[in-house]
Amino acid sequence: MNDPHKTALAIDALRRGWPIALAGQDGTLALLPIETADPARLAAFDPGGAASLLLSAGRAATLTLANQRDAAAPDSPVLIERAPWLDFATATALADPQFDLQVPMKGPFRAHCLVERDAGAAALRLARIAGMLPAFFVLPGESAALVLTPGDIDAHENAARLTIATRAHLPVVGAEDAEIVAFRTPEMPGEHIALLIGKPDGRPPLVRLHSECLTGDMLGSLKCDCGPQLHAAIDAVAASGWGMILYLRQEGRGIGLINKLRAYALQDQGFDTVDANTRLGFAVDSRNFAVAARMLDLLGQRSVRLLTNNPQKVAQLEAAGIAVVERVPHILPANPHNERYLATKRDRTGHQF
Ligand SMILES: Nc1nc2c(ncn2[C@@H]2O[C@H](COP(=O)(O)OP(=O)(O)OP(=O)(O)O)[C@@H](O)[C@H]2O)c(=O)[nH]1
Ligand SMILES: [Zn+2]
C-alpha cells in the first residue's frame, strides 16, 4: 500500500537533516541529506566512513566526471565513491554550486555503478520536492527510522487527492466580479488557487496556467516575465468574457524558491536559465500540469482555450484528458533584464514567440 503521509514525514526529516531510507525495486538506500546535515550527524550515520555520495548527473557533469555526461537526464542519479579525504565540507562543496568559484575541486572523483537506481532516482526527486539540493550521503540498507518507497512519493504527488477547500468572491484590479477557489491535498503545504472571471457563455473558457514566481509576482522582478504575464492574463480573460487563472504552486518550474534563487546566483555568473538548472542537478522543467487538469475537472471544465506560449502546457493538459481547442499566445514586451531569458525560452525550451 502506497502511503503519501510517509512522504510528508520524509520531507520534514530531510529539511531537519535527519536520515531516511528509500526502498526501490532494485534495493534499499539509507540517505543523509548533505544540505541540512552536519559533521556530527554524518559521524552518527556513517561511523565507519563508508558512505558514498549520491548526486545528480547534471551536477556530476559540472564536476567533470567525464563518464557522467548524460545531458538528456540531468536529474538522474550518480554514485560517487567516498575517498578518505572526502570530508563533510568537501561533500558540501560538491553538492552546492555556490562554492564552485571558491573551492578548488580536489578530485579525482570516481563514479560507481549505482545498483539501487530506482531508490537513488526517487531520493533525488524527493530532494527536489522538499526544495533542497539533490545530494546525499548514502549507504546500502535500511539504517534509518523512516523507510519509504518511490510509490509513496507518487501517491504524495497524485493530483487526484486535490479537493476544493473553499470559494469566495474576490474583486481584483481588472476583474471586480472575480471569484477565488482554493484547492488543497492533505499533504502539500502550498494551496493552488483558481481565479474565476466573468460568466460562462457556452464557449470553452479562456484559461491561464500561471506557475508561482514569488520574485516576479510579488516583488516586480524584471528578470522574468511572470508579473506582467499574470496581470495581462487577468485583463485578457476579462476581455474575453469568461475564463480563469489557475495559480499553481510550482515555484521555479518545480524546484522551489531557494533552488530557483540558487539558479539565479548561477545566472549572475553568466549561465542561462537552462544551464543553471542543469548545473544544480535538476531537469530544465520539473512541472507536472496534471494538477491543473484536476483543478479544471473539479471546476467542471473539460475543454479550454489556453493562454500560453508553452507547447508543453498544451500537451500535458491534453494527456490528462482536457481538450485544448485553441492556444492563445501570451507575449509581453521584453525589458533589458529579461531579454536573454526570453530568448533562451524561445531558443532552448520550445516556447513559441
Ligand atoms: N528554475 C527557474 N525557474 C524560473 C526561472 N525564471 C522563472 N522561473 C519560473 O518559471 C515559471 C514560469 O515559467 P516560464 O517558463 O517563464 O513560462 P511558462 O509558464 O512555461 O510559459 P508561458 O505559459 O508561455 O508563460 C515560474 O514558476 C517561475 O518561478 C529561472 O531562471 N529558473
Ligand atoms: Zn518569474
UniProtKB/TrEMBL annotation:
Pfam family, one: GTP_cyclohydro2
CDD domains the record matches: GTP_cyclohydro2
Ligand binding (GTP): R208, L209, H210, S211, E212, Q229, E251, G252, R253, T273, T308, K313
Cofactor section: Zn(2+)
Entry's EC annotation: 3.5.4.25
Top-level taxon: Bacteria
Binding site for Zn(2+): C213, C224, C226
Note accompanying the cofactor annotation: Binds 1 zinc ion per subunit.
GO MF: GTP cyclohydrolase II activity
List of catalytic residues: D285, R287
Domain spans labelled GTP cyclohydrolase II: 167-329
Pathway(s) this gene product operates in, as recorded in its UniProt entry: Cofactor biosynthesis; riboflavin biosynthesis; 5-amino-6-(D-ribitylamino)uracil from GTP: step 1/4
Annotated catalysed reactions: GTP + 4 H2O = 2,5-diamino-6-hydroxy-4-(5-phosphoribosylamino)-pyrimidine + formate + 2 phosphate + 3 H(+)
UniProt KW keywords: GTP-binding, Hydrolase, Metal-binding, Nucleotide-binding, Riboflavin biosynthesis, Zinc
Enzyme class: hydrolase
Role of this protein: Catalyzes the conversion of GTP to 2,5-diamino-6-ribosylamino-4(3H)-pyrimidinone 5'-phosphate (DARP), formate and pyrophosphate.
Family: Belongs to the GTP cyclohydrolase II family.
Official protein name in the record: GTP cyclohydrolase-2
Organism: Sphingomonas echinoides
